[in-house]
Structures are given as structure tokens and as C-alpha cells.
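Practice problem 4.
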């Protein structure tokens, strides 16, 4: 794996001449051959990993109803352009500047939601401690967060909800025999963010 310089300033810290790219071809079972690309900045430490399938993929949405704990072990490929959504719980992680791709399983995706909820909960907890009077809103917020945590904890075992991947670049996938794939609607394509500046690289460059 050799690092190649990328001749644009870092999208985060704007330093020039510090951006590098490492690409290697890999095989993920069922996802197929793909190129894993990591762009990194030596000045600020920013890095972004992405997965580009060898075959062109259509913009797509994946959906899996988590009604069985064995589905927690199903593999997922989540690219940096993918929005992850759990409609029933009103949870959504959209790609942002720091969005990075990963290969994990369903449980790993849920754990990322748990981390975010716990972070918010710690803030609420701290505010509750410093408040001398009982704050109805904070108590309500904490109860909501607790119920979200319990819903996620019991996924597939008393708690059923749907995990959705929406990827305008079509580089993401939920690898489960019950997962349902569909094309994104025109409306969704307009609304969905695609994450970090794709000017860093495009699949055409990498596959060329
Ligand atoms: Zn930087």
C-alpha cells in the first residue's frame, strides 16, 4: 500500500501539500471486489475511508427489519455518502464532513447510535445535577433517551424496528438474506446529503 499525494488542500484545515491517498483492492464477502480508499491529512489528522465497488452501483436504499437477534450479526458496508436511519425511533445519522466509511455488522451500527445517545444523555445528566429545581423538560428528555437505549438494547428480542441505509452513490449495503433493496426516489436524491466533498476523488479516477 503506497500513499499517493493528492494535489488539493485539506478540506478541513486547508493546509496544502499534506493530503495523501491510500487505495487498495479488497474482497468483502457478498459485497464483492471493491477498492478501499483512505484520504488522510498529515497536518490535522483528518481521514476518511470509503469503499468503491468494482461494478458500478445504482443509487440505492437498503432496509432490514430487525425482528431477530441473529440479524444483529449481518454484515454491512456503509460508505461515507450513506444516511443511516431508524424511522420508528426517529433516529438518523447523515453524512457530514467527518463522515467515514466502515465495514461492520448491524450491531456495530446500533452501537454507534448508542454512543451518540449516551453522549447526549451525559449532557442532560450534567444539566440535571447543576439545576437546583426539578426541570421537567430535562427529566422528559432523559426518559426519552432511556427509552431509546432500551429499544436498541432489545433489538430483535422484544423490540422490532427497521434499519435503513440510503446511499445516493450506491456504495453501501446490508448483507442479509431478508434485506430489501430499492432505488432511491427523485425526491430522496434531492434531499439526501452525500457527505464529504467528492472532489477529493471519484470512482472514475480510482477505477481508471
Ligand atoms: Zn487537514
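Answer key:
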Amino acid at each position: 500500500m503506497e500513499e499517493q499525494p493528492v494535489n488539493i488542500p485539506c478540506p478541513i484545515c486547508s493546509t496544502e501539500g499534506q493530503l495523501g491517498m491510500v487505495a487498495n483492492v479488497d474482497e468483502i464477502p457478498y459485497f464483492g471486489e471493491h477498492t478501499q480508499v483512505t484520504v488522510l491529512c498529515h497536518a490535522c489528522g483528518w481521514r476518511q475511508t470509503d469503499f468503491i465497488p468494482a461494478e458500478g452501483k445504482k443509487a440505492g436504499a437498503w432496509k432490514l427489519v430487525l425482528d431477530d437477534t441473529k440479524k444483529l450479526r449481518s454484515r454491512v458496508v456503509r460508505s461515507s455518502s450513506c444516511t443511516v436511519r431508524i424511522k420508528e425511533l426517529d433516529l438518523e445519522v447523515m453524512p457530514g464532513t467527518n463522515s467515514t466509511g466502515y465495514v461492520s455488522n448491524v450491531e456495530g451500527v446500533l452501537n454507534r447510535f448508542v454512543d451518540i445517545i449516551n453522549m447526549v444523555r451525559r449532557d442532560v445528566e450534567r444539566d440535571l445535577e447543576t439545576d437546583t429545581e426539578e426541570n421537567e423538560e430535562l427529566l422528559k428528555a432523559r426518559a426519552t433517551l432511556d427509552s431509546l437505549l432500551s429499544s436498541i438494547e432489545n433489538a430483535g428480542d422484544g423490540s422490532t424496528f427497521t434499519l435503513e441505509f440510503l446511499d445516493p452513490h450506491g456504495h453501501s449495503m446490508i448483507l442479509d438474506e431478508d434485506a430489501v433493496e430499492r432505488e432511491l426516489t427523485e425526491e430522496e436524491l434531492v434531499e439526501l446529503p452525500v457527505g464529504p466533498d467528492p472532489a477529493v476523488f471519484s470512482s472514475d479516477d480510482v477505477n481508471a
